[in-house]
């Protein structure tokens, strides 16, 4: 699984996907991929497994759509990537955000 494949899978499932930030005026709901890190697993002065972590944010307007969240979980459950989920309601921005933290193992994030 690569990031490009993940984006294509989400787009094919009819999700509006953006990298880094969505353009001003983007209508909710949409997804944003960000916070790419590479916290490799290392021990004994050696890297054993390359990993890349990223955050997939589902941005919704004011109220969580639990059906949409489940649809996204169903897509993610169909691909070989571990993930965890947490939610945040930002009343000042009038949006609800659901964070999906994904981890690519083996450094397999590129083409």
Kindly describe this structure.
The protein is an alpha+beta fold and 111 residues long. The chain has one domain (3-105): STM4215-like. 20% of the residues lie in helices and 43% in strands. It contains two helices and seven strands. The protein has helices at 3-12, 66-77; strands spanning 17-19, 30-37, 41-43, 46-49, 51-61, 83-90, 95-105. The strands form two sheets. It has a five-stranded mixed beta sheet, covered by helices on one side. The protein has a two-stranded antiparallel ribbon with strand order 3-4. The longest helix is centred in the middle third of the chain and has 12 residues, at 66-77. The mean pLDDT is 86.
Shape: globular
Number of helices: 2
Kindly name the structural category. alpha+beta
Order of helices and strands: HEEEEEHEE
